[in-house]
Amino acid sequence: MTDRFHHPDDRETRSAARVRALEALLIEKGIITSRTVDTVLDVFETKMGPFNGARIVAHAWVDPAFKTRLIEDAPAAIAEMTDLPEGMAGAEGEHMRAVANGEGVHNLVICTLCSCYPWPVLGLPPYWYKDPTFRSRAAREPRAVLKEFGLTVPDSTEVKVWDSSAQIRWFVVPERPAGTEGMSESELAALVTPESMMGVAVAASP
Fold first, then answer.
1. 1 pLDDT exceeds 50?
2. Class of domain 49-198
3. Is the pLDDT of residue 5 over 50?
4. pTM of the shown model
5. Which of 15, 114, 184, 186 is catalytic?
6. Tens digits of residue pLDDT in 75-109
7. Phi/psi at 109 (nearest 5 deg)?
8. Where along the chain do its domains lie?
9. Residue 66 CB neighbours (<10 A)
10. Binding site for Fe(3+): residue ranges?
11. Is 115 among the residues known to form the active site?
12. Which of 54, 142, 180, 182 is the most buried (most CB within 10 A)?
């Protein structure tokens, strides 16, 4: 992660302390139970997360017709994949849209207003995605920001920035890496990172 969006080393510790205090207060007031947080965490560890997005991207890589449908109507295309968990169109997934990287174009997803994010395919957003510096600079100078992430986009490639909101939550279908011919979908999915589906990186090489 670039130092440009670095946070104090104790940020996680301080945030965790606040969360524990808030959880204790909500339990005391009877708003939630001691199992509520564990249930939510389990959802994002086992059901909703970047592992879903990786499977969707891998399927798009091997099935051009599916990729076309995914770009045209992401929720409908995702619903075709019966091996995904229930609730893909639920919280934070109601209005998902996909854009594909390809020859001459690279896509970057941001949220200038807050931290809107397609949870079912990417999980919870990282800290830096919510950082005001990232959100503002990525809109103004996306090439410079991508370079700070270690991704240099050629001048001949257009960089398109997509602003997620409560109405539309974007994710990127990265380009399929070279040398992956003959790989299975599960092997391909292992090359897809959350960062590549946000556009701040490319898919990993085999």
1. no
2. alpha beta
3. yes
4. 0.82
5. 114
6. 999 999 988 777 666 566 568 899 999 999 999 99
7. -105, 130
8. 8-46, 49-198
9. 17
10. 111, 114-116
11. yes
12. 54
